[in-house]
Amino acid sequence: GREDFRPRIVPYYRDPNKPYKKVLRTRYIQTELGFHERLFVAVLTSKATLNTLAVAVNKTVGHHFPRLLYFTGLRSAKVPHGMVLVAHGDERPIWLMYETMHYIHQHFGSDYDWFYIMQDDTYAQAEQVKALVTHLSINQDVYLGRAEEFIGGDEQARYCHGGFGYLISRSLLLKLHLHLDSCRNEILSVRPDEWLGRCIIDFLGITCVSQLQGQHYHTYELAKNTEPEKEEEEEFQAALAVHPVSDMTLMYRLHKHFRRIQLDRAYQEIQDLQMQIRNLTSLTPAGEAGLTWPVGINAPFLPKSRFEVISWDYFTEQHLFSCPDGSPKCELSGASKADVSEIIESALEQLNSRYQPLLRFSKRQLLNGYRRFDPTRGMEYTLDLLLEAVTQKGHSHVLAKRVSLVRPLSKVEIIPMPYVTEATRVQLVLPLTVQDLDFVANFLDMFAMNTLDTHDNALLTLLFIYHPYDAQRVSQVDVFAGVKAMIGELEKRYAEVKIPWISVKTEVPSQVKLMDIVSKKHPVDTLFFLASVWTEINMDNWQVFFPVHFQEFNPALMYRGEQTASSSTDFLRDGHFDRHSFAEACFYNSDYMTARTKLAADILDRDEVLESMEVFDVFLHYSGLHLFRAVEPGLVQKYALRSCNPRLSEELYHRCVLSNLEGLASRSHLAMALFEQEQANST
C-alpha cells in the first residue's frame, strides 16, 4: 500500500555535557530544501559573429533571461561589454558542442532545472521561453525543439534543429553527461545539433519532440529579404524562435516587431480586466462609489492624522519649488526635467486620442504643475495646461484644462545582490573620543550579550582618539584607562576572545583618516562594520550597507517623569530615523582601498580635504559601486546629545547639529514641553 506521510514534531534536545556550537544554516530556505533556479541559457557564437550577431542577441533578449552565457571556440582580443563569454580554444563545431555541454553540467548542472541552447543567429522570444518552462514538469527527461529527420537515418528518430534553439531538462543533462566522451569518440557528424541528437538517441533512447505536456514549441523559418513588419502569417506571430537571422539590423527589427505584439496584447488584457472590474464593482457593498481611478490601481492613501498627509510639490517647466537641498527654488534638470517633459507629452497624447478627429490639442504653456509620491500607488500628477484646440475645419481656440495622471508602481523586481553568510567574519570598528566614555560600558555589555554569548563570528577593534593634550599626559593620566580595564574584564570572561585597540592622536577626528589607519592593519577581504558608541549591536544588522538608524527621542521630554513604554510593538513611536547620520557603515576593505586610491589621486597631497568627507562620500564619488542606504528598524540608538566638533567642515558640523535638534522629541511632545514651561513661567 501507499505510505501515509504525516508531519510529526521532533522534540529538540541538546546534550548539556557537550559545548554549545552554533548551527550554520543557509540564508534562504530554497537552498536548504534543494530548490533550483528555473532557466539557464547558452548562446553558441563564434569569433566572426561575436561582435555582431552575439551583441544583437545580448541587447535584445539578454536582459530578459535570468542567466545567459556565450560560448565560442576562439575569442577576439576585446570582449563586448556586458557579456559573459566562455572560450574553449577550438572552432570545430562538434568540439564546441561537446565542451559547452560539459561546461554547463560542471558549473550549472546542480543549480538549474532547464537549459536552453540557442545560436547567435536565432531570435528567441525570452518571455515565451520562460513561460514555456513554467508549464513543463521537471520530473521527465525533456528534449524539446524543432524536430528534424536525420539524413538517411531512422524515420522514427528526430534531433532538435540548433538554429531554432532547444530545451533540455536537468535530469536529461545529468544522464547525458555520463556518455559525452563516448559520443565524441564514436559518433561522426558535421552538424553539432545532429551530433547531440544522435548522442541522446543512441545512449538514452530519447528523441526530440516539438510538443510535450500540452505545450507547443512554435518556430518560424525566415526567407531571404523578409520584412518582419509585413509578415502577417499566424505561424510567424506565434513563433517562439525565428531562424535564420542574417544580420544585426534584422535582429533589432524582429525584436521591435515582437515587442509591439506583446505590448498590444498587454494593453488589450488591461482593457479587458478594467471592464471586468467595472462590471463587478456594482455588486460590491460600496457600489459604483467604490470604483477607483485609474481602474485597477490602488486607491490613494488616506491619512489618519495631519502628520500623515502627503504634500504636493509644485513645479513649472523651468523650476522645481521643493528641492532636495531644502532651498525653496531650484532649476528643473536631470531626471526631474525628463519626468515632467514625459508627463506633459503623455497628457497631450491622451487628450488627442480621446477627442480626435473632432479636436486636436497642442501645448502653449504649462501654467501649474503638482506632483507627489503615494507609496500605495505611485507618482501622482496634476497639470494645468494652456492648450490650443484646432477643429476639423481649422478653427482654433485657446483654453486652459486641468488633467490628472498617475505613474503607477510597476511589478516589483527583486535585484540579486551578494549577501554576507554567517561564515563570514565581521570586523566591528568602534571609534571612541573622550565625550563617548559615559556610553562605552553599555555598548560593551550589548556587544557581549548579542555576539559573544551567542558565539557569532564577529571581532571588535576599538579606536581610541586622543586629543593632543591628553596624549601628552597619557603616562600620568590615561583618559581611556577605564575602557581598557573593561576590555580586560571581557577577555577574562571570554578566554577565546581578544579585543585589540588602536590609539590615534588628532584634533580633528576625520572619519576617512581614521578608516585609513584601520584599513592598513587588516586583510583586503575583511568585512568592516563601522559603528558608533550608541549603536546596539545585533548580527541582523550586517546586511545593511549604509543604514539609517532609528534614533530614540529624549526620554525626559517624551515621558516627563512617567514610566517608559515597555511595549516592543510601539517603540518606533518614541523616535525617528536619523537621515543626517552616516556613522554606521558596512563594507569590504578591498572596496574601500580601491575607492581610497582613486580619492588620493584626485586630491593629491591636500589632506585637509579629508576633514570635509565621510566614508559615505568616498564610496559615493570614487567607488563606482551601487550604494544601498535605507532605514533599518533593527539598528536602534539610545538618546544622547552628541558633541559636534566645530573643527570639522561646515556641512558635517551642520549635519551633526541638525541630528541633535531633530532627535530631541516629536512635534507634539515639544509643543507640550513649551506649553508646560509657559504655564510654569506665568505662575
Describe the 3D structure:
There is one protein chain. The protein is of the alpha/beta class and 683 residues long. The protein has three domains: 29-217, Alpha-Beta Complex (Spore Coat Polysaccharide Biosynthesis Protein SpsA, Chain A), CATH 3.90.550.50; 313-408, Nuclear Transport Factor 2, Chain: A (Roll), CATH 3.10.450; 426-561 and 572-673, Alpha-Beta Complex (Spore Coat Polysaccharide Biosynthesis Protein SpsA, Chain A). It has a six-stranded mixed sheet with strand order 3-2-1-4-9-6. It has a five-stranded mixed sheet with strand order 22-21-20-23-26. Strands 14-17-18-19 form a four-stranded antiparallel sheet. A hairpin with an 8-residue loop joins strand 7 (147-149) and strand 8 (158-160). Helix 2 runs parallel beside helix 9 (248-281). The protein is globular. It starts with 28 loop residues before the first helix and ends with a helix. The relative contact order is 0.05. Keywords: Glycoprotein, Golgi apparatus, Membrane, Signal-anchor, Transferase, Transmembrane, Transmembrane helix. This is Hexosyltransferase. Its main location: Golgi.
Structure keywords:
alpha/beta; Spore Coat Polysaccharide Biosynthesis Protein SpsA, Chain A; 6-stranded mixed sheet; 5-stranded mixed sheet; 19 helices; 27 strands; N-acetylgalactosaminyl-proteoglycan 3-beta-glucuronosyltransferase activity; EC 2.4.1.-; glycoprotein
